[in-house]
Each structure stands twice: as C-alpha cells, then as structure tokens.
C-alpha cells in the first residue's frame, strides 16, 4: 500500500518498507493501546470501527490497565488485555512479556506505561502519537504529531489516513443514534466532572437550571445523576420543589444512559465523560469550558454541538450559558419556537 505522509509525520525506513509491501489482508493481529477514562474511550470508538473496515480479517486486541475499565469498548474488539500495574515487579514484568507478536501496534495513549508496553511488545510496525520527538526513533516506525485543537475522535483517525483510508462522516461510533427533530422536549444537565475545577459550582448550576426552566417553560429540565456516590441531585431539591418542569433522573447504567440520551433535545454540561457519550450518540450538546481546551472535545462536522467559553479564560456566567442554549435550541428546533414569558409580558 502507498504511505500517505509528508513532513507532518515521522516515518522510519522499516515502517515505509513494511507498509509498501504488506497487503492489508496479510494483517492478522493488531494491538491497540488505550489507557484512558470514560470520555476518551468514547472518542476511541470511531477509530476501532474504521480499523475494522480497513482490516476486516484482523484479530484486534485492546490493551488497558485495571484502573481504566469503565466504558471499555469491548463490543468493537476481539480481546481485552489488562496490563498488571498493582502487583509486584515480577507480576508486572510477566504481564508485559505475556503478549505474543503482532503485525501492527497502535499506541494511542503516550503514557509511561503505554511506552513501556510498546517497547516490550514485538510488532512488525509500531505507530504512535509521541509528545516528545525522541520517542519516534526509540519506539515507533510511524510517529504523528498530535493536535489538541481538533476533536479527539478525528485526530485518532490520522493513523489510518497514513494508509490511505477514507473514514466515514459523520463518524460512526457504533452507538444508538439521536432521534433528531423527534427528540422529546427535554434539556438534560450533568453538573459533575472528574475534578471539581472542571465544572461550575452547585450554586451556579442551581441558578442556571432554575433560570432555564423559567425561560424555556415548554421543556422538561432534567438533572442527570452520575454513577459516583457524590454525584447526586440533592442540591437541586429546592428548585425541583418550586419548578414543576424540573426533575432529577436517578443513576443509570451505561447502556440505559446511551438510549436515554438519544431522546433528549440537548445536553448541557462541562468537560465530562457524559458529554463524550452524548457526542457518540450524536446528541446535541452545549459544552461549558474554562479549564480545559474546548476544541479537543468539540466536533465541527455536525452543527448541533456548541461550546460556551470566554476568550479571557474566565468562567462563563449564567447569561452566557443561557444565551448559548437559546441560540442552539433555535438552530436545532426552529419549529418549536414559542413566545417566551418576557415576550408575553411586553404585550
């Protein structure tokens, strides 16, 4: 196959020779290293779908570690390898040496553990996203420059573009798909994040949800509880008591959550795994960013995702978020537009 690279990529002589002489049908065993949390696993799904399209006969093994098991895309792979990281040095060494040789290895993580596994695993060709150029000559035959200014799921597909693959758009996550204009009049909110500095305070969320419920009275406003014990909706109890169109959705498992997400009109949340689940189901999202780079989690190939962030890096206020929500609902569901309470008051 032709190698589709230029000065944007590192390519070793061994890598070029192997790619040019190896027909895709001869690729029998592939290792994908991805040691990450919930949201990043969602972003990995299109890569695995397209990898299967490019190498339909290959046996695909996904390597992770025990701390990152939630939302592993086991439905898209043939085998899961969990690298030992908790035992003694002997157990960890045996774990590293337990994998048999592969035809291709993709390191999608670029962590200390993934680099060690890459080094210890035998493969005809190794491809990676090194943040440090030194890793190219030490570890990889193909090294791509990673950008965080494009949606993560698209960036991962660059590996397959090296081999001339044409990914399908919109990206295929192999997940339930949003109902579009038939979605229920539900605005969902997920006010939690992996760390508290990535999300608004509970008080800010309380004010936002009550204001949105008062403005968009024709919608149900539902706070979605998370799977952690501290991710409950108790802090919204007073708003639920005051507003008849505000409620709390109890915790759901991942499969039920994905199906439920396809029926809501829009999800409002910060940088969270739940937002990545919404992206994977093509559910409209309004993302709130102030700590993390928004572009990495903001697909631009679909017009129903919006990001609220301020150029000076300040935390978006209630007015900023409500304005973004208003514009997004109008763009997505223009047929639903009704006079707002403020409009009626002026008559």
UniProtKB/TrEMBL annotation:
Keyword Cytoplasm: no
Pfam families: Glyco_transf_9
GO BP terms, alphabetized: lipopolysaccharide core region biosynthetic process
Gene3D superfamilies, sorted: Glycogen Phosphorylase B
GO annotations of cellular component type: cytosol
Keyword terms: Glycosyltransferase, Transferase
Name of this chain's protein: Glycosyltransferase family 9 protein
Organism of origin: Billgrantia kenyensis
